[in-house]
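Assemble and predict.
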Amino acid sequence: YQTFPGDLKWDHNDITYRVLNYSPDMEESLIDDAFARAFKVWSDVTPLTFTRLYDGTADIMISFGKLDHGDPYPFDGTDGLLAHAYPPGEGIQGDAHFDDDEYWTLGNGPAVKTSYGNAEGAMCHFPFLFEGKSYSTCITEGRTDGLPWCATTADYDKDQKYGFCPSELLFTFGGNSDGAECVFPFTFLGKQYDSCTTEGRTDGYRWCATTANFDTDKKFGFCPNRDTAVTGGNSEGEPCQFPFIFLGKTYTSCTSEGRSDGKLWCATTSNFDTDQKWGFCPDKGYSLFLVAAHEFGHALGLDHSNIQDALMFPMYKYVADFSLNEDDIEGIQYLYGPKIPTKPSTTSSPVSTAKPTAQTPKPTAPTVPTTTPSVDACQVEIFDTITEIQGELHFFKDGLYWKTSNGGKGNHKGPFRISERWPALPAKINTAFEDHLTKKIYFFADTRFWVYNGQEVQGPRRIEKLGLPSTLQKVEGALQRGKGKVILFSGENFWRLDVKTQRIDKGYPRFTDQKFGGVPVDSHDVFLYKGHFYFCREIYYWRMNSRMQVNRVGYVKYDLLRC
Amino acid sequence: WCHPIKSVFVKFPGDVIKNTTDVELAETYLKRFGYMEVQEKSGVRSLVSTSKALKKLQKQLGLEETGTLDKATVSAMKQPRCGVPDVHN
């Protein structure tokens, strides 16, 4: 292994990262997951922890770009250079860039995650049978609305499991339309478009308007690539058009005809001879997980290795069942030391301060309790509190809680008993939040609070210990603001808590409507979720983005719980 | 098997045809990834011969250290890879 000159490394172990933008090749949650797994490769063998930030400056800023993407080292189109990263330090140091002229997958061809349908966001299963015919791509057969779909098992005729494939008819990403789908036709600079376009952009990304008129409404989003989208050629991102005519002959699948390099290509209109529009067919692509794990090695201070099986070897090689090579482990532990074994987590642990009571059951992972009370979350009018824990929204009510699944895209699960997962807590919780840096979970009930670190608990303690006034009856909401700061709401006021010192900062309280204009000042719950602030009152929520603009009002039950 | 052996080759519009010679490819590659310059201890940079640079590359990539632009080395240069230079000057 090698390190950079001067053994460049981070001077802290709790590393933060932020994903600045996405590639149209894979659905956002797949990209998030690939990056999270790539960081876990290194946290598994060192004391390092990796926490994702949704705004502000993180140690490792991750982005996709093409050709000249703003630093002195331009990419080079398809193949060749795949990505690069900078050694630890300030500014661009520590950042990782990925070449979006590459076809990003999980290394084995199109990685298509479905949405809606009845497969709860499962991946497409290629090939699959539909009405006795085998398909290896998303299809529109059987539908009149033109939405591409796929089966999530090998045989749709038998299993009837399906979901919709990413397409601009279903959603967009980025832009300023919160994921709304494209509207066709739309008007741009006076011209009508009935499909995604790169017009008006220099970076080659396809986009569309999410209203009928971009010139007046200025609402847009980027188009996800379909699984049959081509790369390179002169129609990047457009789907293959089957059948198409080439030299007078009809083709119903990709072909290498006409090329000396044997690469498979297709036309993106029905007639290549007249329209001359084409691109390369999707192949296995490059595993974003493997390339990211390599680049994050650089971002942590490792240089290239000359061991061909090492992750830090400079050439790309797809490996199905990946594991770190000894050379990589020696290198990263030379910089940061080995992973510190975690203490066994039993309540009898000497550091736990919770008073074990006869009823305290042995802490176990939450499972659906066998005697589940028949309370349906969709019948609950107002929840005691709502908060995101380990990526899933949790809805608390009278000793029970429900949680979303699949990062909020699947159906909610539960109810579970609070006492089974957090035995020290009372039935009624006013607010709760998970500290992004330490992963500790804070629970507030009336004038008391508890801090759970895994299964270890501290508390109850009085909220005055944090520096809140003794007259305060309860904390009604919490917003994590990064850099170890959390905003606590009560009544028409809010305070800023420094989680590290566990004290309220000077200069508080302040009035909620001074900083959070446009939301109810008497919200009974406030929480952060996927980078947005949610203010709840009765059955409604007001959603505010990081620029303090209310950009949605909706129903807790339908939008968050997905009833 | 009934496919015609002799195919027609077409020029595709917008096709990024990389018709660089192997020598040009090698020169660009060795320069881009830091093999052509060496920084002396005194901090002075000096150029090294292509043969020496090729040997260094071949050692890094686990290839036979011939110092010549042999087939295996050209093939390796055409493989997809990380953009971080191998040698930091």
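The helical segments of chain B are 22-32, 50-60, 71-77.
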